[in-house]
Each structure stands twice: as structure tokens, then as C-alpha cells.
Amino acid sequence: AQSVTQPDIHITVSEGASLELRCNYSYGATPYLFWYVQSPGQGLQLLLKYFSGDTLVQGIKGYEAEFKRSQSSFNLRKPSVHWSDAAEYFCAVGAVSGGYNKLIFGAGTRLAVHP
Amino acid sequence: DSGVTQTPKHLITATGQRVTLRCSPRSGDLSVYWYQQSLDQGLQFLIHYYNGEERAKGNILERFSAQQFPDLHSELNLSSLELGDSALYFCASSVLGGMNTEAFFGQGTRLTVV
Hints:
Chain A has strands spanning 3-5, 10-14, 19-21, 24-26, 32-38, 44-50, 56-58, 64-68, 73-78, 87-97, 100-105, 109-114. By secondary structure, chain A is mostly beta strands. Helix content of chain B is 0%, strand content 53%. In chain B, the strands form two sheets. In chain B, strands 2, 4, 5, 6, 9, 10 and 11 form a seven-stranded mixed beta sheet that branches. Chain B has a four-stranded antiparallel beta sheet with strand order 1-3-8-7, with no helix packed on it.
């Protein structure tokens, strides 16, 4: 069955420090992978996506993610975190199952940023 | 602003009642997805409509139903509400129905059942 695992429920980093959020997926075929961010009281905003091609993808707000098929991972990175990056981050895989499409989300990682 | 509009933003209702949540997708988007976000279940896919037709059902209870109208807006109907239905309900839209297309999310409707 398709699934997405985000091993870290909470992460705290200092402002200006680098960030890596982990995501592992389980999917039999080539996955479509997404990272979304949810700020308090807001909907989900797409940060970046991987469909095919270059395994290092660039997104908005200085985020990037690397698809590693051998590790079934799609980790999100940012070289320098700003206080406004505090939010919840969701990794998702686009899956086809039983002839229909859906996005399967991980449980999310809540990021806190210390000044 | 994602371009997806959900109304109302907040809803408080009693157990046993019925409510309707509304979603207007981005202009030109044919697909509408509904998701439920709760503390214990996380983000759960409920249902997907494409150009007025139901395409997929996820973890949607029989007490819940949805439809997409000719103008492409969608409504999610929740009936015989229980305390456990309290959650944030998101609508998302995309141009097509495939999983290689980006979905844009609304800001959600927070439902509180008392």
C-alpha cells in the first residue's frame, strides 16, 4: 500500500541555521512527490514537486528537495531558515490506486524557529 | 491567495445536525478534491470530482456526500454529525485529474461539533 512517512513530528532550529526535513515514501511505481507548507490558520501551499527528470528540484522561498529512488526518500532542505518559516510541512505522494488518483500525505513535521 | 475559495471559514453545530461546506475552485480548474484534517488522523483524502463526475472515494463516511455542479463549484454535505467529525475540511483544485498536476488548496472550513 502507498504511504508517506515523516519521521520527525517536531523540529526546532535556530534562525539562520540549515534545515532538512525527512520524507520516505512507499509506492510501487515512479512517484509524483510534493512538499506542502501549512502556516497557522492557512491552507496548504505547494513548495515544490517532483515528477521526473533532475532529481534535485528547486521550489519557492529557497527550498529544494532531492529525490533518491534507492532510499525511497524526498527530503526537503533550506540553507538558511527565517523565523517566518515556522509552520507545518507535509510531504505527499501522488498515487494511482484502483484506477483513481489521490494525494497521500505524511503526518507532517512542525517546524519551530528560535531567534 | 491560492484562488480556491471555501465557505464558511468556521462552523459550529450540534451533534446530529447536517451542514454543507462549499468550495469554489480556481478559474479553469476541473478537478476538486476534499480532505479532512484532524489531530488524530492527519490529512485524509475524502473524495475527488472531475468536471462534475465523481472520480475517486477515499476515507469518506457514508454520512458524508459531495457533488460538483455544472459551474464546477463543489459542496460537501456532512450529516448526522458526531463529535469526532470536528476537523478542518480542505478543498483543493487542479486543472486536470491526474496526479502529475499541482493541486491548490483553499484555507479550509473549521467545523466544530458540540
